[in-house]
Design brief:
By secondary structure, the chain is of the alpha/beta class. The chain has 2 domains: 106 residues, ATPase, nucleotide binding domain (Nucleotidyltransferase, domain 5), CATH 3.30.420.40; 81 residues, Nucleotidyltransferase, domain 5. Helix content is 30%, strand content 29%. It has 6 helices and 11 strands. Strands 6, 7, 8, 9, 10 and 11 form a 6-stranded mixed beta sheet that branches.
């Protein structure tokens, strides 16, 4: 049984996966109450599934980019579990979780993660048997980024309320994922964690660090 936790932004998501099936998943929006809401929701999910922390096989966590508070709380939580129960830990960059749910497309894919104060962490990808990063990840004002869009682009990821209105109206040039399609799901993170577990590609609970800004 693997527990996956994504607290990178104000959208929190947790999931339980047994390696064959997704047993439970819960995604919700928080008003910066990560520290208050995370532990009780994880405890409730485990209790409903009849799983004790010592029965877990591993833990997967979103590494960022994301907010300082969200990443710190999520990573601290899973590190505590990993060390207390001697569990394998797997850190997954937030953009990789976004890409996991995106089908191949002919146009450029622009993935975004809120960075606060009208800014986003942004990354562009092209499909070549898999999504491949084409430019360094950066933090940029959403208005600036929107004004730069001139080539056919598909935009996915978490777009904060009101920012969609800043996208230029260029029919046939821009497509935006629906809000439901853009949600980062911990169920996908759990699948990625299981792949890492089977490949024995674990991270160290003592040295694993969050990605606060534009990424490595």
């Amino acid at each position: 049984m693997l527990l996956a936790i994504d607290t990178a932004t104000r959208t929190l998501s947790i999931a339980l996966h047994d390696g064959q099936s997704l047993l439970a998943e819960h995604t919700w929006r928080t008003a910066d109450n990560h520290s208050v809401e995370l532990a009780p929701n994880v405890a409730l999910m485990l209790r409903r599934a009849g799983v004790e922390p010592r029965q877990l096989s591993g833990l997967a966590v979103a590494l960022g980019p994301g907010t300082y508070t969200g990443l710190r709380i999520g990573l601290g939580f899973v590190k505590g579990l990993a060390l207390a129960h001697n569990l394998p830990l797997f850190g997954v960059p937030t953009f990789e979780i976004i890409l996991r749910s995106q089908a191949p497309r002919p146009e450029t894919l622009l993935a975004v993660i809120p960075a606060g104060r009208g800014r986003v962490s942004a990354a562009t990808y092209e499909w070549a048997k898999q999504w491949t990063l084409t430019n360094p990840i950066r933090i940029v004002a959403w208005a600036t980024l929107a004004a730069e869009l001139t080539a056919p682009t598909f935009i996915c990821g978490e777009i904060e309320t009101g920012l969609r209105a800043l996208l230029p109206e260029r029919h046939g040039m821009l497509a935006v994922a629906s809000p439901a399609q853009a949600v980062r799901r911990a169920g996908l993170l759990a699948e990625m964690g299981w792949e890492r577990l089977r490949a024995r590609r674990m991270d160290s609970a003592t040295t694993l660090a969050p990605i606060y800004g534009g990424g490595p």
